[in-house]
């Protein structure tokens, strides 16, 4: 009798243990370097919500914003090692990884409109670039918008000549470095999480960012002037550790792909409004004086920066630059 009772308890314990193991969720650590109230931050939270709801808790997404886990240069290695499963790095991050073609997105004035940008990311050019990441152990899932960049500094910058000798923070990108040197500025590569303090202490004089990043990181509190040049684009690629992604149950992966598609539509729909709102809020604060260049002044910025396209052909690839030009031409734009 005692033996049967003991056996029953053991069986019950094994069943309970097996049930607990079966109930353990698949955890996706999603790390990024910007604030939760940016377009990327909100899209990450949307993906978390959809993924957890649609898998009925079988997947748990842990979002870590503001470089809580890793800084810019650390996060890609962490993904490849499997320390995190998902990132949404800026497109400039893939050049240092060895996929230099991604730096086409950094070229100044390469995208004359959001329609051209979307034709590139959603078409064969953008999808082909994501495919190139697979040799690095990375699966590319989607492109997320942020927006076009403004230049900021502690002096008025109405013309390209005003940036001569100005120390400007950039992401680690050969194209962005060449862009700033074309303006006779002094580019300083630096992690995003360090920019506010660097501006505050004078380590750098200024930077370039979409308004949403500038506002949520409070850079307008330590920059006296900004110019709405819209000279460059900042977007992101949502990526996952390929081994992890390929190892998911097929049905779970399909549900997550659907959640990512919806989160991506959300991200790209809100990006422009978020930037418009951020720009309005910074103007209203009165801490940074924003300058809107005239049509003639914008043409001067374009003239100063377009030579970077030819200069970077050997690095980025003439064929991919021409492919972007071709998409622009289909929509009636000329470079």
Please explain how this structure is put together.
With 335 residues, this protein is of the alpha/beta class. It has a single domain, classed as Bacterial extracellular solute-binding protein, family 7 (D-Maltodextrin-Binding Protein, domain 2, 3-Layer(aba) Sandwich). It is 50% helix and 17% strand. The strands form two sheets. Strands 7-6-8-5-9-11 form a six-stranded mixed sheet. Strands 2-1-3-10-4 form a five-stranded mixed sheet, sandwiched between helices. Strand 1 (26-31), helix 2 (39-54) and strand 2 (59-64) form a beta-alpha-beta unit. The chain starts with a helix and ends in a 5-residue tail after the last helix.
Strand residue percentage:
15-25%
Q: Could you state the order of secondary-structure elements as H and E?
A: HEHEHEHHHEEEHEHEHEEHHEHHHH
CATH class: Alpha Beta
Helix content: 40-55%
Count of DSSP strands: 11
Assembly state of the chains shown: single chain
> Count of DSSP helices?
15
Task: Please tell me the total number of domains.
Answer: 1
């Amino acid at each position: 009798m005692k033996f049967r009772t003991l056996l029953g308890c053991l069986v019950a314990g094994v069943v309970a243990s097996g049930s607990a193991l079966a109930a353990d969720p698949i955890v996706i650590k999603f790390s990024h370097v910007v604030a939760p109230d940016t377009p990327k931050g909100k899209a990450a939270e949307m993906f978390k919500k959809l993924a957890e709801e649609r898998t009925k808790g079988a997947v748990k997404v842990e979002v870590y914003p503001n470089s809580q886990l890793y800084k810019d240069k650390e996060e890609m290695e962490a993904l490849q090692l499997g320390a995190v499963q998902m990132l949404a790095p800026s497109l400039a991050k893939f050049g240092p990884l060895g996929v230099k073609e991604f730096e086409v997105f950094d070229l100044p004035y390469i995208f004359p409109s959001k329609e051209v940008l979307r034709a590139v990311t959603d078409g064969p050019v953008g999808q082909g670039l994501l495919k190139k990441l697979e040799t690095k152990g990375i699966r590319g899932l989607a492109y997320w918008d942020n927006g076009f960049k403004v230049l900021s500094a502690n002096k008025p910058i109405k013309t390209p000549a005003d940036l001569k000798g100005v120390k400007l923070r950039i992401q680690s990108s050969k194209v962005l470095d060449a862009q700033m040197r074309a303006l006779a500025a002094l580019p300083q590569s630096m992690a995003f999480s360090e920019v506010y303090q660097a501006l505050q202490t004078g380590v750098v004089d200024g930077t370039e960012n979409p308004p949403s990043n500038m506002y949520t990181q409070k850079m307008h509190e330590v920059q006296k002037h900004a110019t709405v040049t819209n000279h460059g684009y900042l977007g992101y690629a949502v990526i996952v550790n390929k081994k992890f992604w390929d190892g998911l149950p097929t049905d779970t992966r399909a549900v997550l792909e659907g959640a990512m598609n919806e989160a991506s539509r959300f991200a790209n729909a809100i990006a422009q409004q978020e930037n418009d709102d951020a720009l309005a809020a910074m103007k209203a604060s009165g801490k940074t004086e924003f300058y809107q260049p005239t049509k003639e002044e914008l043409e001067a910025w374009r003239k100063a920066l377009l030579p970077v396209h030819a200069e970077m052909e050997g690095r980025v690839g003439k064929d991919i630059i021409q492919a972007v030009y071709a998409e622009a031409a289909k929509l009636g734009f000329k470079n």
